[in-house]
Amino acid sequence: MRVELKRPAWIEIDFKALEKNYNFIRSRIDKKTKIAAVVKANAYGHGAAKIAPKLSQLGVEYFCVSSPDEGIELRRAGIKKPILVLAEVLETQYSEIVKGDLTQAAASLETISALDKLGAKAKKKVKVHLVVDTGMGRIGFFPDQLNEAYQLAKKLKNIKIDGIFSHLARADEKDKTYSYQQLQKFNSALDNIRESGFKLPLIHIGNSAAIIDLKESFLDLVRPGIILYGLLPSKNLNNEAALTPILSFKTRVVQLRQLSAGSAIGYGSTYKTENKEKLAVLPIGYKDGYPRLLSNQGEVLINGQRAPIRGRVCMGQTIVSVDHIKNVEVGDEVVLIGKQGEKEISAAEIAEICGTINYEIVCNLSERLEKIYV
Ligand SMILES: *Cc1c(COP(=O)(O)O)cnc(C)c1O
């Protein structure tokens, strides 16, 4: 595909693959369970303003973000469905919750009563989902505090308790013992509310790993993030998942050079040619979110073959060896993440080299890279 770009470095997003991943999730969960698509962090670097409307059109019922400003961005993109802010917020962010008609994760009585006051001022009911900390140790009421928090929040005139949720810390591991303990704590905390004679609001706990491996987590909603984008939450899952990565990160060869034997390449001269070597210069670097940890470690695809990185990844340029690849020309397409012919470089492969997870690799891709949605 040839498109006019300001700079020969871009991200391609495949909407067909997004639809496949969405259909996979639907086929996996129970009929009664709704999907709350997690599009925080600019849809894990994939562009929330484009991804969310597409998912809404496909039938996603709910959206999750990590801060009110992300919620406002979705409203601007035309999202009319409920948007849940998953993280704790400061007072300075409250007004956006009301302005955007967002639903706030409520993890403390202080937040709830502050939102109630704000609702009173705006003559609106502020929607909240109570968070329960069943073992994530991040935010939320402890299971034995939930009933009291629920009763108190219930009395507030300008608060609507729309849901109660918890988050799994280890659903991506083979051994699900910890996840079952979390589920059990969640359920017994909910039972306390039921026993007080209340009908429960929307309850949810499942993330991507749980959708693949833990059917007990299919409650009113599930909250898939990474699998929407076609990436696996870990390689330690028990079940297969038919997913297709929706993102490719591409650039073009901007220059070809021949260096003689014994030449040093890049900052710190960390690579020296043994023989004469043909190299290609790429106009991307760590400023684009292409990790510097790939220096002398990573590979890219050119003409359907792997080309190893030589020397250190620079801020805006990277050098790869094309000594073994025939017919490389200036302007040739280079795949940094994604497929070319039979070969593929996954975000997981890059993450492995960098000692991190695929989540971080895609999230860190620069927002300045142009995105093409096909
Ligand atoms: C990020 C997040 C998710 C989605 O996690 P994935 O592993 O990407 O599916 C779900 N729930 C909460 C509370 C989160 O913070």
Automatic annotation (TrEMBL):
Keyword Isomerase: yes
Residues found modified as N6-(pyridoxal phosphate)lysine: K40
Stretches assigned to the Alanine racemase C-terminal domain: 246-374
SUPFAM superfamilies from the UniProt entry: Alanine racemase C-terminal domain-like, PLP-binding barrel
Binding site for substrate: R138, M315
Catalytic activities: L-alanine = D-alanine
Cellular component GO terms held in the UniProt record: cytosol
Gene Ontology molecular function: alanine racemase activity; pyridoxal phosphate binding
Annotated keywords: Isomerase, Pyridoxal phosphate
Pfam families documented for this protein: Ala_racemase_C, Ala_racemase_N
Biological or metabolic pathway of the protein: Amino-acid biosynthesis; D-alanine biosynthesis; D-alanine from L-alanine: step 1/1
Broad EC category: isomerase
EC number(s) per entry: 5.1.1.1
Domain of life: Bacteria
Cofactor(s) listed: pyridoxal 5'-phosphate
GO BP annotations, alphabetical order: D-alanine biosynthetic process
InterPro entries, alphabetized: Ala_racemase (IPR000821), Ala_racemase/Decarboxylase_C (IPR009006), Ala_racemase_C (IPR011079), Ala_racemase_N (IPR001608), Ala_racemase_pyridoxalP-BS (IPR020622), PLP-binding_barrel (IPR029066)
Catalytic residue list: K40, Y267
Family assignment from sequence similarity: Belongs to the alanine racemase family.
Task of the protein: Catalyzes the interconversion of L-alanine and D-alanine. May also act on other amino acids.
Protein name per the record: Alanine racemase
